[in-house]
Design a protein that fits this description.
Largest sheet: none
Distance between the termini: 41 Å
Number of helices: 8
Order of helices and strands: HHHHHHHH
Number of strands: 0
Shape: globular
Structural class: mainly alpha
C-alpha cells in the first residue's frame, strides 16, 4: 500500500491521469459559480475529447469560478487508473461502465478528503499520542478506496467519516491546547460578512463556520482549526494562517488573499490572488 503520509501529491488532482471525471460525473446549476446547468453524468460542453477543459485559462472570466476552486484530492486519477484500470468511460464498450465510474467517483473523493485530513493530523507532532490510531484510520480509509466498484457504491461513507471525525476532533483539541490565550469557540458559527479585520483568532475553533464574504484582513488565524469552514469570497488579505490546520486547497481557492497572506505549508497560494482575477 502506498504511504500517503510520505507523498501528499497523491492527494491532489492529477488531470493528466484522469478522464475528466469532475467535468462529467458531478452536476452543477447555473449560478454565480457556473454559467450553465449541467446534470450529473453529462459531459460539460467545455470538455474536449482529450479530457481537457477548453476554457481552462479563462474559467473565471467566462463564469465558471466553481471549477477553479474544486479539487478532487486525487480521487480522479485513483478511479480512472486504479479502480477501473485505465479504461476510459468514452471508449468503453458498455455505457454501464461509464455509469459505474460516475457513481464511484464522488465516493472515492470523500474518502480521499478524509485521507488528506488524516495525513495532516499525522504530521502534527502534538498529536503524537493519537498517531497509532490515526495511522490505523488512514490505512483503513486507503483500503476502502481500493474496493471494487460495486462495494464502493454500497459503502456507508457517513459512518466511516464519523469514526474518523472522532480522531480529528481529538487532534484539534491537542493542537489548540498549546496555544496561549483564550481560544474562541466558533464551531458552526454564522459569520457571513462578519467584520473581523485584525481579529485575534489564534487557536480558534472554526470547524464548519460560515465565513462567506467575511473580512479577515490582517487577522491572526495561527493554529486555528478550519475543517469544513466556508471561505467563499472571504478576504484573507495579509492574514496569518501559519500553523492553521485542516485547511484544504479548495477552501483557499474560494477565498481572496494577497502576497502578504501567510499560509501553512500544506497548501499553495492561489494564482488568482496575485493575478487580480
Amino acid at each position: 500500500m502506498q504511504d500517503t503520509t510520505a507523498d501528499r501529491t497523491v492527494l491532489r488532482g492529477d488531470c493528466d491521469n484522469c478522464f475528466g471525471l469532475c467535468c462529467v460525473a458531478l452536476p452543477f446549476a447555473r449560478s454565480a459559480d457556473f454559467a450553465l446547468d449541467k446534470p450529473a453524468g453529462k459531459a460539460c460542453p467545455n470538455l474536449g475529447g482529450d479530457h481537457r477543459c477548453g476554457i481552462h485559462a479563462r474559467l473565471r472570466q467566462q463564469g465558471f469560478t466553481g471549477c477553479t476552486v474544486y479539487d478532487c484530492f486525487g480521487a480522479g486519477q485513483k478511479v480512472s487508473q486504479v479502480t477501473f484500470g485505465g479504461q476510459d468511460w468514452r471508449t468503453a464498450a458498455s455505457g454501464e461502465h461509464a455509469r459505474r465510474m460516475f457513481d464511484v467517483f464522488p465516493v472515492v473523493r470523500q474518502l480521499h478528503e478524509l485521507l488528506w485530513y488524516l495525513t495532516e493530523a499525522l504530521a502534527l507532532p502534538v498529536a503524537r499520542p493519537l498517531h497509532a490510531d490515526l495511522r490505523r484510520a488512514l490505512e483503513r480509509t486507503e483500503e476502502l478506496t481500493l474496493l471494487p466498484p460495486d462495494e464502493l457504491t454500497a459503502l456507508d461513507v457517513p459512518a466511516h467519516r464519523q469514526d474518523v471525525n472522532v480522531l480529528l476532533l481529538k487532534t484539534s483539541e491537542l493542537a489548540r491546547a498549546g496555544i496561549r490565550g483564550r481560544k474562541k469557540e466558533r464551531r458552526g458559527a454564522d459569520l457571513m460578512g462578519a467584520r473581523l479585520k485584525g481579529a485575534d483568532l489564534r487557536g480558534a475553533n472554526l470547524r464548519g463556520a460560515c465565513l462567506i464574504a467575511a473580512d479577515l484582513t490582517g487577522a491572526d488565524l495561527r493554529g486555528a482549526d478550519l475543517i469544513g469552514a466556508d471561505l467563499r469570497d472571504t478576504d484573507l488579505t495579509d492574514a496569518d494562517l501559519t500553523g492553521a490546520f485542516f485547511l484544504t486547497q479548495p477552501q483557499l481557492n474560494a477565498a481572496r488573499g494577497s502576497a502578504g497572506t501567510r499560509l501553512p505549508e500544506s497548501v499553495t497560494r492561489p494564482g488568482h490572488w496575485t493575478a487580480g482575477v
